[in-house]
Amino acid sequence: MKAGVRALGIAESYRQETSTLAGVVVRANRIVDDVVFGSCTVGGTDATEAVTTLVDRLDRPDVRYLLVAGIAPAWFNVIDLHALSDHVDRPVVAVSFEESAGLADAIREAFDGVAASRRLATYHAQPDRRRLAVDGEALFVRNVGIGDDAADDVVRAFTPEGGRPEPLRLARIAARAGDEFRRPE
């Protein structure tokens, strides 16, 4: 991948009723180009809209890929990867870092009625997770708007070492710092 290709990584951190989202634009050569902050509701249903707002605010047509840390930030605020890809008009790759049997049972335990049904419908509409080995680490990938092999290449290209793509690693650090800053003393 060419050194100047850019990806936007989105990650979150939460402690209260609002989750801090951070987006970091990183070039394939590891240069950071931009940072943006936002929020979504813990236990809400606004994560997809919150991520699209971050992308819109950045207004960076040079970003080729959108990477998100998982699909259920902020306590099952499920991201619709298809809607996100349609809105941002570029490939979206969701990367998670732990093996699991899925979120359906946990969603059913945490919510009931319409709240559970809405989250489950969005969750079940997403592509299946695939296991991807990167530098001896297991990652779990879902992708929309890009084929599996190409998505794997993107994840590997943006993962210089360890098991976390650099845009997501830096976004997580930024989100934690932003969350700490917002926290009342």
Would you mind describing this structure in some detail?
The protein is α/β, with parallel strands linked by helices and about 180 residues long. It has a single domain (about 5-180), classed as archaeoglobus fulgidus dsm 4304 fold, CATH 3.30.2170. It has helices spanning about 45-60, 75, 80-90, 105-110, 115-125, 150-155, 165-180, and strands at about 5-15, 20-25, 30-40, 65-70, 90-95, 130-135, 135-145. Strands 3-2-1-4-5-7-6 form a 7-stranded mixed beta sheet, sandwiched between helices. α1 (about 45-60) packs parallel to α3 (about 80-90) and α4 (about 105-110) runs antiparallel to α5 (about 115-125). The N and C termini lie far apart (about 45 Å). The mean pLDDT is about 95.
The CATH homologous superfamily corresponds to archaeoglobus fulgidus dsm 4304 superfamily
Biggest sheet: strand arrangement: 3-2-1-4-5-7-6
Q: Which topology does CATH recognise?
A: archaeoglobus fulgidus dsm 4304 fold
What would CATH call the architecture? Answer: 2-Layer Sandwich
Briefly, what CATH class?
A: Alpha Beta
Shape: globular
Q: How much helix, percentage-wise, in residues?
A: 25-40%
Q: How many domains in all?
A: 1
SSE string: EEEHEHHEHHEEHH
Number of strands: 7
Number of discrete helical segments: 7
The profile of the biggest β sheet is:
7 strands, mixed
Can you tell me the residue ranges where pLDDT is under 50 for at least 5 consecutive residues? Answer: none
Sheet/helix structural class: alpha/beta
Q: What is the strand content?
A: 25-35%
Distance between the termini: 44 Å
- Average pLDDT reading: 96
